[in-house]
Write a structure and sequence with these properties.
Structural class: alpha/beta
Helix content: 25-40%
CATH superfamily of the domain at 439-595: P-loop containing nucleotide triphosphate hydrolases
Number of strands: 21
Length: 677
């Protein structure tokens, strides 16, 4: 029976007011009520007083040794005192403002009281009276002012008694057998009414798998629906041409790059629409992989486009791609917002008539005035920098072109599984051979003179230096003042011999790009910046990154900044200046100095700060799970993902009778996205 369609009004004592109270908790039907799980448990196992710690909440069982006495004090306040004999000791139990509990205590009868122990006074401040044979674990729920714990618990008990034998189990039996999972009735019973901690743990483990599995099945259903609707372009590329191009490169692709190229080319050759995310650490070589993919599309007779978030990054991509492909007579073009109308119209004309094979651009690519003859492949660089509508607008420039989204922000496994589940994910997890590890040091502000001395030595070798300061206020004026102070200090120390540049948030975009271009062209030796230096900006001669107030940044942000150096042959360095005021900030500094692996850092950042600061618009946070924690329960999440993927790729299993309840459940949840029947 689908309990999502059973109204709460079917339960006794649920009138309009209580219905509204339940809805304020997100409980809209009987299913929601039964699967509204407690957020913690209180141990209701009786404890010896000798083992109890002062102010600890404990359960005391004993015999009522005195008649209960109710006294009044203050304004409408009451105190109930009763003595219990336990462990051969008589203790006083006191309840405040619960005079009706007097009837629970009869001299000579057994009693069980849960409360806070006062070791000095050998007394208990009672919180609740427990049935002598009740379960040893008590469930605690998240409630609000509209509904009390006791009311909610009673409603859950009533609903379970009435509908327990009508709870449909959605996880197929072969998976429950394989992983020793409980059915849905056992899950609900074991979580709400556990007899002991072991039973609640078993039920919660099963519930976590169930929740993750249903979520992954939902993502698979979206993907399946997209695959059914979006028959992709079969790109019959010239494999020999690609092989010759790869052989001609002045460097050898890493094993990781070769693996990812193979994954992408297999997608392109199939009739399924490609929607793939390519993630790779700073300097891992994502760009050349995208070039090979775009070249494959061109050899298949299509056009390709790559969209970057800023003009300087687009220019950088264009320079690299043109240098590689012009000798092969592949025509490339750069389309940005700073072009004159005449330049824009000329390039747009070549794109429309097919003379241009590969277009590199910014948001200018999605203008109405830009039309392609036959766009077959799209690369979106730093895809989280673009909104959903912008990415969609570029896709609509072609007839369902294949899409490769790239990001230099390492995405933790948790986020990749939960938020990119409808995309295929490729990872370049290997840096090119010979790339030197960036040495990272953390110093406190009192040792800043050492940093100045180090910078002086590096400048003498001809290296360039980045100096980054964080946004210390929402006020741009304060931000600018902070940068100017540091700019003045570096000018005072190094300005006679070296050119010091300043980049700040109040500059118009064209001035920012002019400063970055001057830095790229070695016209600036030290660049002081209040803004995060663009991800992807490539200045091989820059070998030092100095970061002031580094404790104000997250691990992933610091790693991205560090990745601006180490782009050339020189040994590079990152100097973190920080006086952390708490242990968490200090831990970030220690972790960053211990590893250069962006994926390791991303996992740590997720644990320490949560998902919100790691990614852009789409990835503002993890999906909200009721019982599973994607970070702590990553192993269960991964198994659930694997099983969901296996199920959706096995037609025989997918259409077997034991998936009936699952498909019905997913259909109802995702009816606007897919229909299985």
């Amino acid at each position: 029976m689908d309990l999502r369609k059973v109204s709460l009004a079917q339960l006794p004592s649920v009138g309009p007011k209580r219905l509204e109270a339940l809805q304020s908790l997100g409980i809209n039907n009987v299913y929601d009520l039964l699967f509204y799980f407690p957020f913690r448990y209180e141990d209701m196992q009786a404890k010896s007083l000798d083992d109890a710690v002062d102010q600890e909440k404990i359960l005391v069982k004993g015999v009522v040794a005195s008649e209960p006495v109710v006294s009044r004090f203050g304004y409408k306040k009451t105190r109930l005192n009763v003595r219990l004999m336990t462990d051969n000791e008589s203790i006083m139990v006191t309840f405040f403002n619960q005079p009706w509990l007097k009837d629970k205590f009869k001299t000579g009868n057994d009693a069980a009281v849960y409360g806070k122990w006062n070791a000095n006074r050998r007394s208990l401040m009672g919180m609740k009276v427990i049935g002598i044979n009740d379960n040893s674990v008590d469930s605690v729920y998240s409630v609000n002012k509209n509904i009390h714990q006791k009311t909610l618990i009673n409603l859950i008990k009533v609903a379970f008694e009435k509908y327990h034998d009508q709870i449909d189990t959605v996880v197929p039996s072969y998976l429950r057998l394989k992983y020793k999972l409980l059915d849905d009735e056992q899950i609900v019973s074991g979580i709400h009414f556990p007899k002991n901690e072991e039973q609640s743990e078993e039920a919660r483990r099963s519930a976590k798998f169930r929740e993750f599995f249903l979520f992954q099945c939902g993502l698979q259903s979206i993907k399946r629906n997209d695959d059914n609707k979006n028959i992709g372009i079969v790109e019959k590329y010239d494999q020999k041409f690609l092989d010759d191009f790869i052989q001609s490169l002045p460097f050898k692709l890493t094993d990781a790059q070769n693996r990812v190229v193979k994954e992408i080319l297999q997608d392109m050759a199939s009739d399924h629409h490609m929607n793939r995310l390519l993630q790779g650490d700073v300097g891992s070589g994502k760009t050349i992989v995208s070039v090979i993919a775009m070249l494959a599309s061109v050899t298949a007779g299509y056009q390709a486009a790559i969209m970057a978030p800023t003009e300087i990054l687009a220019q950088q991509h264009f320079d690299k791609i043109s240098k590689l492909l012009t000798p092969l007579k592949i025509r490339t073009a750069l389309l940005t917002g700073s072009l004159t109308k005449k330049e824009h119209d000329f390039i747009a004309g070549d794109i429309l008539n097919g003379k241009t094979n590969i277009v590199v651009g910014t948001h200018a690519l999605i203008q109405d005035s830009v039309e392609f003859k036959d766009l077959g492949f799209i690369v979106i660089d730093e895809q989280h920098r673009f909104g959903v509508n912008q990415r969609k607008a570029l896709r609509q420039k072609g007839d369902n072109p294949d899409v490769l989204a790239m990001t230099a922000t390492p995405i933790p496994r948790t986020l990749a599984i939960t938020t990119y589940g409808d995309m295929d994910v490729s990872r370049i997890d290997q840096l090119p051979a010979g790339r030197k590890k960036i040495e990272t040091y953390w110093i406190r502000s009192q040792k800043i003179e050492q940093m100045y001395q180090f910078v002086a030595k590096e400048l003498q070798t001809g290296s360039q230096v980045y100096v980054v300061t964080p946004l210390i206020s929402e006020s741009e004026t304060m931000d600018l003042k902070n940068a100017e102070l540091i700019f003045d200090k570096f000018t005072e120390l190094f300005g006679k011999k070296y050119k010091i540049g300043l980049l700040h948030g109040q500059m118009p975009n064209d001035q920012k790009e002019a400063v970055m271009n001057d830095f790229s062209d070695k016209k600036i030796d030290v660049l002081v910046s209040t803004t995060v230096i663009e991800v992807g900006v490539d200045v091989p001669n820059a070998s030092v990154m100095v970061i002031y107030d580094a404790n104000r940044f997250g691990l992933s942000q610091l790693h991205q900044l560090r990745g601006r150096v180490g782009r050339g042959d020189k040994q590079s360095y990152c100097i973190l200046i920080a006086d952390p005021k708490n242990e968490s900030a200090a831990e970030r500094m220690k972790i960053l100095t211990s590893t250069n692996d962006g994926f390791v850092l991303a996992e740590e950042d997720l644990k320490m700060r949560g998902a919100g600061d790691l990614l852009g618009n789409r990835q503002s946070g993890l999906p909200e799970f009721k019982i599973g924690n994607p970070i702590n329960d990553i192993n269960i999440l991964e198994v659930a993902q694997e099983e969901a993927s296996r199920l959706f790729n096995d037609e025989k299993l997918f259409n077997s009778p034991e998936t009936k309840n699952l498909k019905s459940f997913i259909n109802e949840e995702y009816d606007q996205l897919n229909n299985f029947d």
